[in-house]
Specification:
The protein has a single domain, classed as Porin (Beta Barrel), CATH 2.40.160.10. It contains one helix and 18 strands. The protein has a 16-stranded antiparallel barrel. Strands 12-13 form a two-stranded antiparallel sheet. Strand 14 and strand 15 form a beta hairpin. The two termini are about 40 Å apart.
Length: about 400
């Protein structure tokens, strides 16, 4: 990752700042309080849970041209409560724990927690208000500098303009904090969604998002002095816009498909300090070939996808997914196998194809995913395959 003003946050004694243990205490206390409070207030409530445990063989753990393969374990736990506070007021509270663990190439091993709540208030037959909010925490034991916590809130208004037509408009707020790194960011934005039920088995939805993300500690580079970067007082700012179109068709009660189109654009003012082939800002032993690359993060992307699902019998289901996507960078320059910028210079371009199949019978899950990423940036020109098998228990 691009270093920026040394990247690491430190306390007044020069030590790295760890994850705030108080946040963890508040996090888990909030889970308990919300669950207990929901029980006492609601006239109707129900609980549900899900536990998944699987082992997998990943042919390319880091998704790059090195193709490092490893065996890993995945586990997740989901707990949920649905409550009806009154005739027009409904609440939902979900907690999710996800753990990923590889045995050899374990830099990206992660444990994450998410507490997500929603309150829905109906106002007659035409309107209802949704307030969706949550907090999250993530720990990466082998890369603790990227430990993070976050908070988000997405209030929205739903207007049932006709019997089978719904318009949704809402606000987006998301804040992510990295105690030991300078990637703290805050996102604000707006979203709109139009859903139309064409028939009992056919549904179409189009949505769009406009959002801005600010990085209060991520300073831009201004120049180079004796092989080291100098900095501006300007901060990184991103603007992201995207639209998504989904067409859903049920063929029977247990089978159907979705067609998905996604188009997005990220505009970022962040630039990049390139130290030259196989060099870094921490170990730049060969000076004179450094440069500042503008518009490093900006790109446009398009994605086409299809999901197919079918019930083979009472207890068996099959899911198929495939997607094709492109990504064109506005300023990021492609590099060759020696980590040198290609000559003549060209902007990085990626084309990706992903195909996956999942088979579920009773409590057993078998999944296979194959991915091809064709890129003129040699490090990101790769293929990947993942085979996993596991069990699922509902309660």
């Amino acid at each position: 990752m691009n270093s920026n003003k040394e990247g690491l946050k430190k306390d007044k004694n020069g030590r790295r700042i760890g994850v705030d243990k108080v946040c963890w205490a508040v996090f888990f206390s909030t889970i308990i309080i919300f669950f207990l409070r929901g029980i006492t207030l609601s006239e109707y409530h129900n609980f549900r849970g899900e536990f998944n445990l699987s082992t997998m063989v990943d042919g390319n753990v880091y998704k790059d041209s090195r193709g490092l393969s490893d065996i890993g374990l995945l586990a997740n736990l989901g707990l949920g409560m649905r409550s009806k506070i009154s005739r027009h007021t409904f609440t939902r509270l979900d907690y999710r724990l996800d753990v990923s663990n590889f045995f050899t190439y374990n830099l990206e091993n992660e444990t994450s927690h998410l507490l997500d709540g929603r309150i829905k208030q109906r106002f007659g037959d035409l309107f209802d208000v949704d307030l969706n909010a949550g907090i999250s925490m993530s720990q990466m034991p082998k890369a603790a500098v990227y430990n993070s916590s976050g908070f988000y809130a997405e209030p929205s208004l739903n207007w049932y303009i006709f019997d089978y037509t719904k318009i949704t408009g809402g606000y987006i707020y998301n804040k992510t904090m990295y105690p030991s790194y300078n990637l703290d960011n805050e996102t604000t934005g707006r979203q709109v969604k139009l859903g139309q039920e064409l028939s009992l088995y056919t549904y179409i939805e189009i949505s769009g998002v406009i959002q801005n993300k600010n990085y209060p500690e991520r300073y831009l580079y201004s120049g180079i002095d004796a092989g080291s970067p100098t900095y501006k007082t300007d901060l990184r700012k991103d603007a992201e816009n995207f639209v998504e179109l989904i067409f859903s068709q049920n063929i029977t009660a247990k089978s159907g498909f979705d067609l998905i189109y996604y188009s997005g654009k990220l505009e970022s003012n962040e630039n990049y300090f390139d130290c030259g082939p196989k060099q870094s800002e921490w170990e730049n032993t060969i000076t004179g070939d450094e440069r500042i690359i503008e518009n490093y993060r900006s790109y446009t992307t398009d994605k086409y996808g299809m999901n197919i699902f079918t019930g083979l019998d009472e207890d068996a289901r099959l899911f198929l997914q495939c997607s094709y996507s492109t990504r064109d960078y506005a300023g990021r320059l492609a590099k060759d196998e020696n980590d040198a910028i290609r000559r003549p210079e060209v902007k990085r371009q990626d084309t990706q194809v992903v195909v996956s199949a999942s088979y579920l019978i009773d409590t057993f899950i078998l999944r296979y995913t194959y991915e091809i990423n064709n890129s003129n940036d040699a490090l990101y020109n790769y293929t990947s395959s993942i085979l996993s098998a596991g069990i699922r228990h509902l309660f």
